[in-house]
Structures are given as structure tokens and as C-alpha cells.
Design brief:
Alpha-D-Glucose-1,6-Bisphosphate, Chain A, domain 4; seven-stranded antiparallel sheet; 7 strands; globular
């Protein structure tokens, strides 16, 4: 199963970056690869959302649950249903000399073991590119509003 870790340093407080990442329904306004996010349910420290995004121009759809830890500035997410067999990971926001290091991890699987050896490297690259794009978008948003 492809595992991707990406990170970026943002010139904004971790709390601001966490706030932006926690408000996922606004992602389509500033993330080119995200077409739509609909909040299906929301609790005090969790949400269920429906996503429509694009990987290499192809639509990918899923429903995920996000668990928010406001104290440690961490968001864990996992797919409940969707186009992939497995899709899960987390966001972490760490203070670094007045800035924020955002780390985004993703584990994903198509669920077709016979094709894993051939497709996993491509999937890993697509996910890494998409994660980097999301992190750059949050960086731009955070630095323009701080």
C-alpha cells in the first residue's frame, strides 16, 4: 500500500494553519485539484465529508471521517466509502520558530493485489503531487491571511 509523507514550512502560526485545514469545505475555493467537499455531519471534534477531487484530471470520489484534535493540532482522516479500497492519513501542525511545519501523510490502496507492483509507484507519485499541491495552497492561504 503506497504511503506518502509530505511537509511544508509556512510563515504563519500553527493554529492558523490548523484552522484553515479544519475548514475543509472551503478547500475548493483555493485548491485546484479539489472540486467539491460537502459536510454530511459534524460533531464537536469530528466531521464526515463527501469529496470530489481530481488525480491527473480524473475524478475521484469518497466519503471520509475527520477526527480533530484541537489540543495537539492534529487531524486524522479515513475513508468510509469511495473509489479507493483504502484511503487514510493525518495532518499535523508543529510550531517551528514562529512558523508552522505542516506534515500530511496518506496511505492509499486500489485493492487489486495483482496490479499493486505495477500501479503503486504511479499512485504514490500522483498522491505526492496532490499532497504537495494541497500544502502549497494552505501555505498561500495562511500567509495571505496572517
Amino acid at each position: 500500500m503506497p504511503h506518502v509523507e509530505t511537509e511544508i514550512l509556512v510563515e504563519a502560526p500553527p493554529e492558523r494553519c490548523y484552522e484553515i485545514a479544519s475548514d475543509m469545505e472551503k478547500f475548493p475555493a483555493f485548491m485546484p485539484s479539489v472540486d467539491e467537499i460537502t459536510v454530511l455531519e459534524r460533531g464537536k471534534d469530528w466531521a464526515r465529508t463527501r469529496w470530489v477531487a481530481r488525480l491527473q484530471g480524473k475524478p475521484v470520489r469518497w466519503v471520509e471521517q475527520e477526527d480533530f484534535d484541537d489540543e495537539s493540532l492534529r487531524i486524522q482522516y479515513y475513508q468510509l466509502e469511495g473509489d479507493l479500497k483504502t484511503f487514510q492519513g493525518d495532518w499535523t501542525f508543529v510550531s517551528m520558530n514562529g512558523h508552522c511545519r505542516i506534515r500530511l501523510t496518506v496511505e492509499a490502496s486500489l485493492g487489486v493485489p495483482m496490479l499493486a507492483a505495477a500501479l503503486d509507484p504511479l499512485i504514490k507519485k500522483l498522491i505526492r503531487d496532490n499532497c504537495n499541491s494541497m500544502l502549497e495552497a494552505i501555505k498561500t492561504e495562511a500567509e495571505s491571511t496572517s
